[in-house]
Amino acid sequence: MPKLKGLAQYGERFGDQYRRIEVVAKIGDKFRVLDPKEAATRASVSAETPIRALYESADAFDFLP
């Protein structure tokens, strides 16, 4: 969670300088992605939502190779 919080803060502060910032985790058989540039994702991270719940929420999306 500390790394995710740090990336959320970084995304808020410097997100406009990057095309994308992605945090990927394997949940079940799928890889799921969180975008710390998105305000909703940052809010969920700030609220200390459990990590698995974050990746299973609407804030995450499936990683497409």
Describe this structure in words.
- By secondary structure, the chain is of the alpha+beta class.
- 42% of the residues lie in helices and 18% in strands.
- It is built from three helices and three strands; from the N terminus they run αββααβ.
- It has helices spanning 2-14, 39-46, 51-56; strands spanning 23-27, 30-34, 61-62.
- A three-stranded antiparallel β-sheet has the order 1-2-3.
- 26% of the residues are buried.
**Assembly annotation:** single chain
**In DSSP terms, counting alpha (H) and pi (I) runs of 4 or more, how many helices?**
3
In the predicted model, the low-confidence regions spanning at least 5 consecutive residues are none
For the largest beta-sheet, the strand count, sense and barrel status come to: 3 strands, antiparallel
The radius of gyration over CA amounts to 11 Å
Shape: globular
The helix-strand sequence is HEEHHE
Strand order of the largest sheet: 1-2-3
The N- to C-terminal Cα distance equals 25 Å
Count the beta strands. 3
Q: By helix and strand content, what is the structural category? A: alpha+beta
**Portion of residues within helices:** 40-55%
Strand content: 15-25%
Mean pLDDT: 92
In short:
With 65 residues, this protein is an alpha+beta fold.
Write out key terms for the chains shown.
about 60 residues, alpha+beta, 3-stranded antiparallel β-sheet, 3 helices, globular
Question: Layout of helices and strands, plus pairs?
Answer:
Layout: H1 2-14, E1 23-27, E2 30-34, H2 39-46, H3 51-56, E3 61-62
Helix pairs in contact: 1-2
